[in-house]
Amino acid sequence: MKVSFGTGSLTLASLAERCRAKLTVPEQATVRVNALCTDSREADGQTAFLTLPGEKDDGEAHIAEAAARGCPCVICTHLSETPVAAIQTPDRLQALLRLAKSVREEVNPHCVAVTGSAGKTTTKEFISSVLSQKGSVFKTPGNHNSLVGLPLALLALRPGTEWAVLEMGMNQAGEIGALSQTVMPDLAIITNIGNAHIGRLGSRYGILQAKLEIFSGLRQNGVFLLNSDDEFLRRSVGKNFRTISLSANGRKADFSAKNIRVELQKTMFDLTWRGGVETDLCLPVAGRQFVTAALFACAVGVYAGASPEAIRRGLAEAKPGKLRQQISVCGGVTLIEDCYNASPEAMEAALDFLDLCCQGKGRRGIAVLGDMLELGSESERLHYQIGKRVAGGRAELLFTIGKESEAIARGARQNGVSSQQIKENPDPNDLSGLIQTLQTVIRPGDVILIKASRKLAAERVGSALKNFLEKRGQGPCGI
Predict the structure, then answer these.
(1) Which of 14, 45, 378, 402 has the fewest CB atoms within 10 Å distance of its CB?
(2) Cβ–Cβ contacts within 10 Å for residue 430, how many?
(3) Rounded distance between C-alpha atoms, residue 137 and residue 125, angstroms
(4) Are strands 73-76 and 22-23 parallel, antiparallel or unpaired?
(5) For the domain bounded by 326-474, which CATH number is listed?
(6) What was the pLDDT predicted at 474?
(7) What is the pTM (predicted TM-score) of this model?
(8) Exposed, middle or buried: residue 305 (CB in 10 Å: 0-12, 13-18, 19+)?
(9) What architecture does CATH give domain 2-91?
(10) In a 3-state reduction of DSSP, which class is residue 314?
(11) Which residues make Cβ contacts (< 8 Å) with residue 361, sequence separation at least 6?
């Protein structure tokens, strides 16, 4: 990843100072760079190379390659005879976090930090859209929410940015705390506590404790936006920050959603808050699960001083991230593609929407479900529960992708779905048989849900089906 400094070029002396590291060639102190990269192939004459350790090898093994591309400086730990100036630090990741924090302090926007087991990106997008109605907004691009991706993204902050909406992901305990202390948020959001990463953290309580690390960097008198519908979060209040509660399930809260209505391409609800009632707020995505994200955006908008009209407009103009619940219709077949990621909670929400699309309309539901990853010892049980949920819903055919999803098939079969209605595809690398069977059985009126963890690239199924239906002479796919 390569990021240009939003605040302008830096001298090597300034870069070293911000990293709290040592420039080993003082005579190069006034040399300037305007970007930082973590891939030696992206290095050039104005870009410093941060040599992070990787899964396969260490960035320090590629210093010569960066130098050959004209790189004037590398940030590294171990020094031999480097062909360029070096900024030496015992901890390269800490150096990056310090650099990012220095940029955050220099630009000094109001910061909203968003973490949680599911819905982080959607929440970020809704909040950013609402805040953009009022002022200049920076948001973490794509899924750059990791311990490396988020601080790298922060380097692009530009002077004059009023708001920064920052998504925080994690792989293990301690990472959210490190990110929060870098970001120093004014508002903290935990969307929910689900089963994502339970394989690494052992239990939902362990996940809760890791997510609560977001408070470690929350500014004095900061604000925590509490999803009071989440049983694990309801008691997460503190003395050093204010709590604003919200509910989409009828609980008493500062911001409440009522009269929720879900249609194929949108969701509508009424908002009740201390300022009164706003009716018929509209989201450009379908599903009850998106209402919670919208409530977070409403609360942030009110905190920022946005008018009800601006909040309404921001929600209506929000765009879900790529590969998240994309709906298209081809030759009378409705495709619901939700292939960005999958947790048990998100999988159930997607099945709820599939049921809604089929309910009372004589339409046949088809569920194409793939592995949910990083569930550890709970994986078989949680996949089985999804299969049981399929059996209780309106999906008449079930296709599974991956070894873990064999438990989905078993859960469905043992709860009333016949073997003839199930096709298993254990190898996610070869989907040809599954796609061929789907092409044989689909018919106009079907609603097909495709959902799996990102690593399985299940969007291949949707692409193949669209091509098939278009070639069959049923016209181009549309909304």
Answers:
(1) 45
(2) 10
(3) 11
(4) unpaired
(5) 3.90.190.20
(6) 55
(7) 0.88
(8) exposed
(9) 3-Layer(aba) Sandwich (3.40)
(10) helix
(11) none
Secondary structure (3-state) at 398: strand
C-alpha dihedral sign at 419, 352, 171, 207: negative
Distance of CA 51 to the CA centre of its chain: 26
Say if CB 423 and CB 399 are below 8 A apart: yes
CATH top-level class for 108-317?
Answer: alpha beta
Q: Cα dist. 478→220, 265, 332 in Å?
A: 49, 12, 10
Contacts of 108 (CB under 8 A, 6+ apart): none
Q: In what order do the strands lie in the sheet with 447-451?
A: 326-330, 333-338, 447-451, 365-370, 395-401, 422-425
CA 411/CA 405 separation, integer angstroms = 10
pLDDT grade for 237, boundaries at 50, 70 and 90: low
Give the count of alpha carbons within 13 A of 358, CB side only. Answer: 24
Range of weakest confidence among 75-89, 157-171, 191-205, 413-427: 191-205
**Tokens 């209506």 belong to which residue?**
316
Confidence of residue 449 (pLDDT cuts 50, 70, 90): very high
* Weakest mean pLDDT among 151-160, 226-235, 237-246, 415-424: 237-246
CA distance 452 to 443: 23
Distances (CA, A) of 49 to 72, 95, 379, 454: 9, 13, 39, 29
Q: In the chain, what are the domain boundaries?
A: 2-91, 108-317, 326-474
Whether residue 362 is predicted with pLDDT greater than 90 in this model: the reply is: no
Q: How far is CA 59 from CA 50, 92, 152, in A?
A: 8, 10, 16
Checking if the pLDDT of 60 tops 60, the result is yes
CA distance 55 to 249: 43
Tokens of 211: 């997510």
Question: Helices 175-183 and 92-107: crossing angle, nearest 10°?
Answer: 30
What single string gives the DSSP state of each residue in 214-277?
Answer: GGGGPPTTEEEEEETT-TTTTT---SSEEEEEEESSS---SEEEEEEEE-SS-EEEEEEETTEE
> Using 50, 70 and 90 to split pLDDT, how confident is the model at 238?
low
Average pLDDT over residues 424-428: 95
Q: What is the rounded distance in angstroms from the CA atom of residue 250 to the CA atom of residue 61?
A: 56
Q: What are the angstrom distances between the C-alpha of 225 and each of 143, 222, 310?
A: 22, 10, 20
